[in-house]
User: Which sequence fits this backbone?
């Protein structure tokens, strides 16, 4: 068994959902051990949290710069190898950039940065560093999403005609309808969240899912946002028309104010031979549609699935796998890359996906602000 990879964590303390998700994922395949961290801007809070989850306190640092400085004093055989960035959006870029410049591998929450320009700078920094860089578009880790990708790659749908991805949530309703709350939450503050809330937080997942599963790139888009209130500076709902080729078009629908919705990410891909449908809230079912055959249902763990899908399946058929397993698959792929082992390109989203995501987010904002016009992606 290879020695565990030394993992540093930035953010993700307390009751953070993202923090729990990353920690469980890191432990899932016994590939990582948490070696150091800055869980909170408050040192005592970080120390208290480290005690709570029972990790050593000697490398819990007061801030990010101290973590870098102290870790770099250690022999390479002892220092943190990879850092997981789980902080609010505005900290992703400066942290990831400094980590790369100091030779660390990086696992970064999305959006990778708050601007497309920052994303391109980070891409250049990454090229010079030669480190492993992963963006946690978690849903790419689901076995049936990977099966969807492999089926499309094999030609099961023929030429793609139409794509339809949606991501509906209702969680921000209590905040957006309260003037005091919507003025104070960081996700609706452009200085901390970036230029987009809805598209930057969840719409970009739908965008990533389309490009991940189809292997095609979105070339241009037209976007219409809804801010709901004139004093709200961030989009909380949006619809995006997309063009992937002259005869390959589709739509991305995203909302944080879809009342009653929970985590409604879903994707539908239609081609000349059939269609594929997957929904995040029912992740173990991939539906294949056809005019000529009965509905087919793919499920994880069966031998008929692709190697990529089966590699991401931990349990025998019939045992549900969920979001923790999906994130665990991403961490597993990153571990393989760090160790120099062979891995499939579909095992984790990379710097390229992060840059594409920021290009998408800024294009949606530009399209809306220009009066809902078509904008070309790089």
Assistant:
């Amino acid at each position: 068994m290879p020695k565990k990879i030394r993992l540093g964590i930035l953010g993700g303390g307390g009751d953070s959902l993202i923090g729990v998700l990353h920690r469980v994922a890191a432990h899932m395949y016994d590939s990582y051990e948490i070696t150091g961290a800055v869980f909170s801007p408050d040192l005592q809070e970080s120390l208290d949290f480290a005690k709570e989850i029972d990790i050593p306190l000697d490398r819990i640092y007061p801030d990010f710069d101290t973590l870098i400085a102290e870790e770099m004093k250690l022999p390479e055989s002892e220092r943190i190898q990879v850092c997981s960035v789980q902080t609010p959006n505005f900290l992703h870029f400066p942290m990831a950039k400094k980590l790369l410049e100091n030779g660390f591998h990086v696992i970064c929450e999305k959006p990778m940065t708050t601007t497309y320009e920052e994303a391109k700078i980070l891409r250049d920094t990454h090229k010079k560093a030669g480190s492993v860089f992963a963006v946690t578009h978690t849903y790419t880790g689901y076995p049936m999403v990977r099966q969807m990708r492999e089926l499309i790659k094999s030609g099961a749908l023929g030429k793609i005609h139409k794509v339809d991805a949606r991501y509906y949530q209702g969680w921000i309703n209590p905040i957006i309808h309260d003037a005091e709350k919507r003025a104070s939450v960081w996700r609706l503050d452009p200085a901390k969240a970036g230029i987009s809330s809805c598209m930057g937080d969840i719409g970009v997942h739908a965008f990533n899912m389309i490009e991940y599963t189809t292997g095609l790139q979105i070339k241009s888009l037209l976007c219409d946002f809804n801010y709901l209130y004139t004093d709200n500076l961030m989009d909380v709902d949006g619809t995006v028309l997309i063009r992937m080729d002259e005869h390959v078009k589709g739509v991305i629908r995203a909302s944080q104010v879809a009342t009653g919705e929970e985590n409604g990410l879903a994707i539908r891909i239609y081609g000349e031979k059939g269609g594929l449908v997957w929904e995040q809230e029912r992740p173990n079912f991939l539906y294949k549609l056809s005019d000529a055959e009965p509905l087919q249902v793919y499920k994880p763990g069966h031998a008929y699935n692709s190697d990529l899908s089966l590699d991401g399946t931990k349990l025998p058929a019939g045992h549900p796998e969920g979001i923790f397993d999906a994130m665990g698959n991403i961490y597993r792929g990153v571990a393989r890359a760090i160790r120099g082992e062979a891995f499939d390109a579909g095992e984790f989203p990379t710097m390229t996906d992060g840059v594409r995501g920021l290009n998408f987010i800024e294009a949606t904002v530009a399209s809306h602000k220009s009066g809902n016009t078509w904008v070309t992606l790089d």
Observations:
- The chain has a mean pLDDT of 95.
- The domain at 5-138 is CATH 3.40.50.720 (Rossmann fold).
- The radius of gyration is 21 Å.
